Amino acid sequence: MRFTPLVLTALLAMGLDAAQAADSNYAGHGIKSVSKETLARFRPEPLDPELARRVQAMFDIRSTGGGILAPDAKSLFFTWRVTGTTQVWRVDGPDRFPVQVTGGEDSTSLSDITPDGKYLVLERDQKGAENPGIYLQPIEGGALIPVQHKEGVQTIFQFVSDDARHIYFRANDEVADSYTLYRYEIATRKTEKLIALKGAWQITDHLADGTLLLEKAKGGIPTEYHEWKPGMATPRPLFGQRDNEEFNARYFNSTGEVLVRTSKFGEFHRLYRWKDGQYTAITPELKWDVSAFSLDARRERIYYSVNEGGYTRSFVLDARTLKPLPLPEFKDADNVIVGSLSQDGRYANLLVETAREPRSSYVFDWKTGSYTRWTRPSTPEVNTSQFATASLEYYPARDGTKIPMFVRRPAECKPAPCPVVVHFHGGPAAQSEAGFSIIAQLFVNAGFIYVDPNVRGSEGYGKTWLHADDGPKRLDVITDIEDAARFIRANWGAGDKQPRIGIMGGSYGGYATLMGMTLFSGAYDAGASAVGISNLLTYMENTAPYRRMLRIDEYGDPAKDREAMIKLSPTTHIDKLAAPLLIVQGANDPRVPVGEAVQMYEAAQRKSVPAKLMIFADEGHGTARRENQVLQYGHMLQFFEKHLKGDTQPAKN
């Protein structure tokens, strides 16, 4: 197979000679990039029945999605995975019996309900390929009506017009790394192209006269905003064009004022009113981010959430006076999130989660000031009141920086000390949070301490923290991965014994796992990586085009940052790999190609290190089907029980 110079350079950086590189089969992404023989060879093996039962019990715990209230507020439509695959359900009042409205094997999500109450707007994906299509379904049920679903194309819903005539969507069907904006007429089932520009464009809001508020992504985080009116050839720039900042915006009113969430003027995100280039702050200056916001259809109330170090709190302002309005208080809630709002603004769907109870929906009535629980989670055969509560703790990085981590501990450890599993989140611009976690509890039930660090590069701690790992700067903070193990080994022992420590994660967390096992060999005693990057250069060459253009600011530019990217690739340090490694991958993954997993496994095999690879032929970037989730986490649990339990290690000086 013939490779571009970039891929060949990366393969050579892995320690392969030219002949080995020429024999490699890694090019592209998705199931077509891997042979049937490879899929058959690495098909996940069945679990021991008793282990499978333990894991299945946890994955039988399911909470409903946030949901959308019908225009008459008499029904709530939501997603639920009670069948093992995400589908759409309906409940006709508080604590009523839910009715399933979509089915099949493909994941289906609810995007909106048309304002006239006639149709559900749905998105459906196939086998985790992340190329969804848009469908309509009569609100009373029945067959789905396709709006657009094309192979290899992302068709993504934007909004329904206020008169319920049109559905607006975006799709990369013309250029793989750019999104064209379309309008679909429901009555005639005809589609027209509105705007076709280079780049990752999307519609974030609209006005009644057809004016569109457009966002263009400049990277993984930075954005800029434009306004388009019918008849315009080119959108009019508003803000963000000269900044390298994140902006999220919605129209504040019909006069063209905009409500903007940004950290442009400080370390943390705040809400501002923007008009004619001027910003006026409307939320307090906090040492936490305003993490999300919304307005009701009449733009009478502003809802916003604050991320308080991994706990979500929600607030409301009167849009006219900007004075705070009271929301209900929920005792012991770790996270309270504002979901959908009724069209008349009277009702707000509040999503409430505690450490010991999955998310439930409460509908709050502004007129009466009362709220009612509409949905409850499903927890068959599991007493969730016994779940471990996450404790917010810290460990020191080698430069003295305090790294936050959520820690969940078993009630007791016999024998002591408990083995530890350190889980690194994806993103990397994401965040591990407090709240309910079946994955964490699965390991706690098995006698492990489960740790969720928020290393530098995580969101929620200010933009300096968030951007600390951008591109080559990751070289300065990647040591946060090793420092977690150093602290645990030095401080969580019992007597003269140190704990055994495992490392795991998915996506960027999978990459962190592979770095922990190679560059920081010896820090962890075993590692389990899911959909993790093994070489930054081959990843950038083979990831989906729409992903590539948004990842350069995060991982580096192969043309400018090649040396740093090689240093930051796990395969570069393969000679240091010494401890057991489990690798999990979805064949349909458009983000992290399946070839990243295969090349890491083959490199580990050449080192004669105990390594295992599992490839799910019907999954993408992570497992979505219940049976596959049971297999993935069952094998991970079995892997860590084998390699972390038993005799503990004597303390090291």
Automatic annotation (TrEMBL):
<keyword id="KW-0378">Hydrolase</keyword>
<keyword id="KW-0732">Signal</keyword>
<feature type="signal peptide">
    <location>
        <begin position="1"/>
        <end position="21"/>
    </location>
</feature>
<dbReference type="InterPro" id="IPR011042">
    <property type="entry name" value="6-blade_b-propeller_TolB-like"/>
</dbReference>
<dbReference type="InterPro" id="IPR029058">
    <property type="entry name" value="AB_hydrolase_fold"/>
</dbReference>
<dbReference type="InterPro" id="IPR001375">
    <property type="entry name" value="Peptidase_S9_cat"/>
</dbReference>
<feature type="domain" description="Peptidase S9 prolyl oligopeptidase catalytic">
    <location>
        <begin position="436"/>
        <end position="646"/>
    </location>
</feature>
<dbReference type="Pfam" id="PF00326">
    <property type="entry name" value="Peptidase_S9"/>
</dbReference>
<protein>
    <submittedName>
        <fullName>Prolyl oligopeptidase family serine peptidase</fullName>
    </submittedName>
</protein>
